[in-house]
Amino acid sequence: MIKTKILIMAGGVGSRFWPQSTEQRPKQFIDVLGVGKSLLQMTVERFVREYSLEDIYILTNRCYFELVEEQLPQLPSSNIFIEPSRNNTAPCIAYASFKIFAEDRDSVMVVVPSDHLILKEEEYLDSVKAAINFAFTREAILTLGITPTRPETGYGYIRYSSSMSEEVLKVNEFLEKPKLELAKAYLASGKYLWNAGMFIWRSSTIIEALKIHAPDIYEIFSAGAGLYNSEDEKEYINLNYEKCPNISIDYAVLEKADNVYTIKADIGWSDLGTWGSLSQVLPKDANGNAGNLSNVILVDSRDNLVRVQDNKKVLVRGLNDYIVVDTSYALLIYPKKHEQEIRVHANLG
Amino acid sequence: MIKTKILIMAGGVGSRFWPQSTEQRPKQFIDVLGVGKSLLQMTVERFVREYSLEDIYILTNRCYFELVEEQLPQLPSSNIFIEPSRNNTAPCIAYASFKIFAEDRDSVMVVVPSDHLILKEEEYLDSVKAAINFAFTREAILTLGITPTRPETGYGYIRYSSSMSEEVLKVNEFLEKPKLELAKAYLASGKYLWNAGMFIWRSSTIIEALKIHAPDIYEIFSAGAGLYNSEDEKEYINLNYEKCPNISIDYAVLEKADNVYTIKADIGWSDLGTWGSLSQVLPKDANGNAGNLSNVILVDSRDNLVRVQDNKKVLVRGLNDYIVVDTSYALLIYPKKHEQEIRVHANLG
Question: Which DSSP category does B230 fall into?
Answer without folding.
Answer: S
